[in-house]
Structures are given as structure tokens and as C-alpha cells.
Write a structure and sequence with these properties.
Elements lengths: L1 H10 L26 H31 L5 H21 L15 H14 L12 H35 L4 E6 L3 H12 L4 E7 L15 E3 L1 H9 L5 E4 L6 H11 L5 E5 L14 E5 L2 E7 L3 H4 L4
Parallel strand pairs: 1-2, 1-4, 2-3, 4-5
Antiparallel strand pairs: 5-7, 6-7
Helix pairs in contact: 2-3, 2-5, 3-4, 4-5
């Protein structure tokens, strides 16, 4: 009886890193042979919004020119259109209206669209408007511009939202995120990606710390070590890597970053980590996965995004 129990215990895998070669394969999600960059898709909507704002300035001038023979100052009008397009696009971008991680449910927010358009066009009212138009015609000019601009902004999203949602379900925008460093961060990333059908998938957690007294996998299966992560990234099986080692492991974090930054992936470090390599070079942008704040260390080359997995 004792011998049988011992045999069963010996065959039970460790909760940290499995020793069998099969367990070291990353849980990579299958993707189509060709994929499109998420940022490019979001920027296409941004470009359409710029065109919508420009039309809001040009359309009233065309109507008054054809119906009333009133000639506008096109130089000033186009300058105002460019300025308004830049302002509207910047405000919408700062408010997350072109978020690449929300292609499955692209932001609409009609109140924000109308508000920023009203403020911008009201502030630039009169620039390029013919001097013959005063009084009630000023408000007609503004009303035509606002109604056309707002309609086109909504139309952009009415077209983009179902298309991007369909393409997301088809896997065209699929991304795969792996975490180096088992623990609470990896668990939170996995739970967020599984809860939101955004086309971004959890590709596994990797860790070199084999001893159970040094690692708490938070119930996750560790798919391999650093070498396995490097191999998967070189095979284009992973798009993003999040480094989530303890804050006290400064030197190890720096060494891991140096080893991973040459790979064709986007590289992030959890923001609670403070390392020497973050104090030099250009400032790093920030992003997030759910509630996990990240420093963006390196972006994946666009030429690698559409390659075969």
C-alpha cells in the first residue's frame, strides 16, 4: 500500500514548471496566415474622421458658392479646416477613440463627437467665411457644417464598428501575449484576456524559477523557461511579451530585457518595476492590459505582423 502511494506521488506533476517536454510547449493560439496591424485599422478611422471635419468646413462654402454665387477665401478656409481636423483628432485620440485594443467594440460616444466638433467649429467660425455672410447666415453656415461633420463622424463608426467586429471574430486582428514571470500579474492578464473577446489571446506564462518556494504560479501552468519563450517568439508564435518579475529582481529584469529586445515582438515591463535600463534613453510610453500598467520598451516591427504564424 505504501509503495503504491509513493508511486502515485512520484507521478504527480509539480505546480510550478512541469518536467515533461510536452508541458514545455507554449499555449499558443492558432491564428490565420495573414493578420492586419491593429493600429493601422484604428488609424484608418482616424483618417476618415479628419476627412469628415474637413468636409464640415468645405461643404457650407460649396453650397453658398453654387446657390448664391458667394466666393469664399479658400486659403483661410482650408487653413481652418486643417486646424480643426488636428484639434478634433487629437482630442478624440486622447479620449481613447482610436484604441487598437477595442476593435471588437469600436468606441462611438456621440456626445463626445458632437461636443468637440461644436467647440472647435465655434472657435474657428468666421475664418474663411465670406464677409457678405453675417447675422443669420453665420448660424446657417455653422449649422450646415456641424450637421454634416457630425453625420460623417457617426457614419465612420457605423461602418467601422461591424466590419472590425466581424474581422476580429475571424482572427484578422489576433494577437498573442505571453508573460515572463509567474504570479499575480500573469493571472490578472490571463483573466482579463479571457473575459474580453477582443481577439487578444493569452499565449502562456514562462518562468525560470523552478523551486516551489520561489514561485507562486497562482494556479497557472508554467509553459516553459526563458529559452522556450525565446524560441516561440522567433517562430512568430508570440506578438507581445510582458515581463512581470518581482521588483527586487532588478538585475535579472535588465538581463531578460536585453535578451528579449532583439526578438520580433512588442516588449513591455510592468510599471511597478524600476530598473537601471529605464533611466537612460528616450522616455517610454505607457499602456495597459486590463488593470495591469505597462511600460512599452519596444514595438514589434509592422513587417512582422502580417507574416505567417
Amino acid at each position: 500500500m505504501t509503495a503504491a502511494v509513493a508511486e502515485v506521488a512520484a507521478e504527480t506533476p509539480s505546480p510550478a514548471i512541469a518536467s515533461s517536454p510536452e508541458k514545455l510547449q507554449p499555449a499558443v493560439v492558432q491564428t490565420p496566415r495573414r493578420r492586419l496591424p491593429r493600429k493601422l485599422a484604428a488609424d484608418l478611422v482616424g483618417l476618415a474622421d479628419v476627412a469628415a471635419v474637413a468636409c464640415a468646413f468645405v461643404l457650407p462654402a460649396l453650397i453658398y458658392g453654387s446657390a448664391g454665387g458667394i466666393v469664399s477665401d479658400w486659403r483661410l478656409l482650408l487653413q481652418s479646416a486643417v486646424a480643426a481636423a488636428i484639434i478634433v483628432h487629437t482630442v478624440l485620440r486622447l479620449n481613447g477613440m482610436y484604441a487598437p485594443d477595442k476593435l471588437n467594440d469600436f468606441p462611438v460616444r456621440p456626445g463626445l463627437l458632437l461636443g468637440v466638433l461644436v467647440v472647435t467649429m465655434t472657435g474657428l467660425l468666421g475664418h474663411g467665411m465670406p464677409y457678405a455672410l453675417r447675422g443669420a447666415h453665420e448660424w446657417v453656415w455653422l449649422s450646415v457644417g456641424l450637421s454634416s461633420g457630425f453625420t460623417l463622424l457617426l457614419l465612420n463608426r457605423a461602418v467601422a464598428t461591424p466590419i472590425y467586429a466581424h474581422l476580429t471574430k475571424k482572427g484578422v486582428f489576433d494577437e498573442r501575449i505571453a508573460v515572463f514571470g509567474a504570479g499575480n500579474i500573469a493571472r490578472r492578464v490571463k483573466e482579463h484576456l479571457e473575459a474580453v473577446p477582443s481577439g487578444v489571446h493569452f499565449a502562456g506564462v514562462f518562468d525560470d524559477r523552478a523551486a516551489t518556494d520561489r514561485i507562486n504560479p497562482e494556479g497557472l501552468d508554467v509553459n516553459g523557461r526563458l529559452d522556450d519563450l525565446v524560441a516561440a517568439a522567433r517562430n512568430n508564435e508570440i506578438d507581445k511579451i510582458i515581463i512581470a518579475l518581482p521588483q527586487s529582481a532588478d538585475q535579472r529584469i535588465t538581463a531578460v530585457v536585453r535578451q528579449l529586445e532583439a526578438l520580433p515582438v512588442t516588449l513591455h515591463v510592468v510599471t511597478h518595476i524600476s530598473s537601471d535600463f529605464l533611466d537612460v534613453g528616450p522616455a517610454h510610453s505607457v499602456s495597459s492590459v486590463g488593470t495591469v500598467g505597462l511600460l512599452d520598451i519596444k514595438k514589434k516591427s509592422p513587417s512582422m505582423i502580417g507574416s505567417a504564424s
